[in-house]
Amino acid sequence: MFVTSSFCLFLHICVLFLIPIFQIEMETMNTTAYCVNELSKALDMERKRYQSYLARVVQTVEKRRKECQRQLERSEPFFKVLKEVRELQFRSRTAAARYEAASQKHHAAKMKVAMAERQLEERLQCGESGNPVLDEAWQE
Fold first, then answer.
1. How do residues 27-37 score in pLDDT, each as one tens digit?
2. Which residues contact 123 (CB under 8 A, 6 or more apart)?
3. pTM recorded for the entire structure
């Protein structure tokens, strides 16, 4: 009997101390569950508003596209030509740069040839014997 009465006393003490703790925890859980449910409802409402707004926007865009279709079709050749013009401008700039580089190389080569001709004329004018002298490097 002693075990039974001490066990009952233990249960009674546990109930006295634990029930308020359980009640507080249950209230916290209920409050949290309520908040989660409210947020879930708000999320569903916002999703519906978003879907409705998105549908209206899609309709408006489609309507505008249909209204502008003729103008878009008419302007398409212009933009194709504009694209080609830009490409041709790029090509002409690169060709001009290549031409400029080639022109500079040609000018430098002409200057070298003119200098070589002058040197050759100077060497051919007269040697000590009165005959034109040309060293072997120039003869080759």
1. 888 899 999 99
2. 132, 133, 134, 135, 138
3. 0.40
